[in-house]
Specification:
It is a single chain. The chain is an alpha+beta fold and 372 residues long. It has 2 domains: 19-39 and 179-360, Naphthalene 1,2-dioxygenase Alpha Subunit, Chain A, domain 1, CATH 3.90.380; 42-145, Rieske [2Fe-2S] iron-sulphur domain (Rieske Iron-sulfur Protein). The chain contains 7 helices and 18 strands. Strands 11, 12, 13, 14, 15, 16, 17 and 18 form an 8-stranded antiparallel beta sheet that branches. Strands 4-3-2-5 form a 4-stranded antiparallel beta sheet, with no helix packed on it. β2 and β3 (67-73) form a beta hairpin. α3 (194-201) packs across α6 (313-330). The protein is globular, with a radius of gyration of 22 Å.
């Protein structure tokens, strides 16, 4: 089966991506390298590496890329991301967050400093051309947005290219002051392709039909999308009497009744900003028809929890999962070929499909897809 996909850039004539994208094993395997290895993946927040000497193991795209990583802050305060695999025989180096002056492999005692350079290895006196560059820990592309950390294998563009539009719009919020509330953590697994879950997130067309409680809060008539290069925004306005942001004069949206900023960053990250803070959702592929969704909440104003668009998120998730799993069964039908896009309500899905085609083709640049 061909791994070549295309979607017309004109949404008014375009058909949706071929359904084989959601079912073909070879396509799924290629997507790991073409999409996930070339995009920025969330690896958690930075709370446990705030102090010099901090070490914190992370995993890049668990269940998909499965790369063991290590965040290390040296004595000078510089934070680095590097491989968490010993360059001697492949043992995992750091298994839990800790503090230290060096990194020591528990298998054969190879040691590294917090910059990742190998400093000691027993019984290697006779080894020629040792140590060499390959004995040091590989440095991994790394960046941050607020207090959130991101890493990549071979990113097609800098992290700023993925987040600059988000920062420009909501940078007035004190993002580094948001605090993780573990009591609000949720993890869900569904029997559906990861891209179907993303597609469902990227359009508000379904809100009046499957989210009755949310529909009572949002002003659906004025619900709109904005398209950027590697991200897009669904801007949700509130009905009268519902909770909204207290926007500063510096905000581009000052004077509007904003209930939520629903940001998606290619390929699998959702940043949902509410008056109470941030609900971060990471979509993690586990197989062609299996997906895990991690919900992590970062609270800014706890007094605003339990109201507005940011209330009842578990119920909204259950409603979404039911729909997505039904679509997973439907797109496998012999009679389903492709659909069409609503030009007014499904710009985000069209944008997503276009990026999937671009990345699957191995391209690194395409014409600008921003909103005018």
């Amino acid at each position: 089966m061909s791994n070549t996909y295309s979607v017309d850039p004109d949404i008014t004539v375009a058909a949706t991506i071929a359904p084989s994208f959601y079912s073909d094993d070879a396509t799924y395997a290629l997507a790991r390298e073409r999409i996930f290895a070339r995009s920025w993946q969330w690896i958690g927040d930075l709370a446990d590496v705030a102090q010099p000497g901090s070490l914190s193991p992370r995993e890049l795209s668990p269940g998909c890329l499965d790369e063991p990583l290590l965040l290390a802050r040296d004595a000078a305060g510089t934070l680095r991301c590097m491989s968490n695999v010993c360059t001697h025989r492949g043992n995992l180096l750091v298994k839990a967050p800790c503090r230290g002056e060096q990194i020591r492999c528990s298998y054969h005692s190879r040691r590294f400093n917090l910059q990742g350079r190998m400093t000691f290895m027993p019984e290697f006196e006779g080894a020629k051309n040792f140590p060499s560059a390959s004995d040091h820990l590989p440095q991994v592309p790394f960046g941050r947005f607020g207090d959130q950390a991101f890493a990549a294998v071979e990113p097609v563009a800098p992290l700023t290219s993925f987040f600059e539009d988000v920062q420009a719009r909501v940078g007035w919020m004190p993002l580094e002051q948001f605090r993780h509330d573990p009591s609000l953590n949720r993890d869900f697994e569904i029997d559906a392709h990861w891209a179907l879950y993303v597609e469902n997130y990227l359009e508000g067309l379904h809100i009046p039909f499957i989210h009755p409680a949310l529909n009572q809060v949002l002003d659906f008539h004025n619900y709109r999308s904005e398209i950027y290069r590697y991200a897009n925004l669904q801007l949700a306005l509130a009905k009268d009497g519902e909770q909204v942001f207290d926007l500063p004069a510096s905000s581009p949206d000052h004077g509007q009744r904003i209930a939520a900023y629903y940001y998606w960053v290619f390929p699998n990250l959702m940043l949902n900003f509410y008056p109470w803070g941030l609900s971060l959702n990471l979509v993690q592929p586990k197989g062609v028809a299996r997906t895990r969704i991690a919900f992590r909440s970062y609270v800014w104003d706890a007094s605003k929890l339990g109201a507005g668009a940011g209330n009842g998120l578990d119920q909204v998730e259950m409603e979404d999962e039911e729909a997505v799993q039904a679509v997973q069964r439907g797109v496998r039908s012999r009679w389903y070929k492709s659909g069409r896009y609503s030009p007014s309500r499904e710009q985000g899905v069209h944008h997503f499909h276009r990026l999937l085609c671009e990345f699957m083709a191995g391209e690194t640049r395409s014409p600008d897809t921003r909103s005018p």
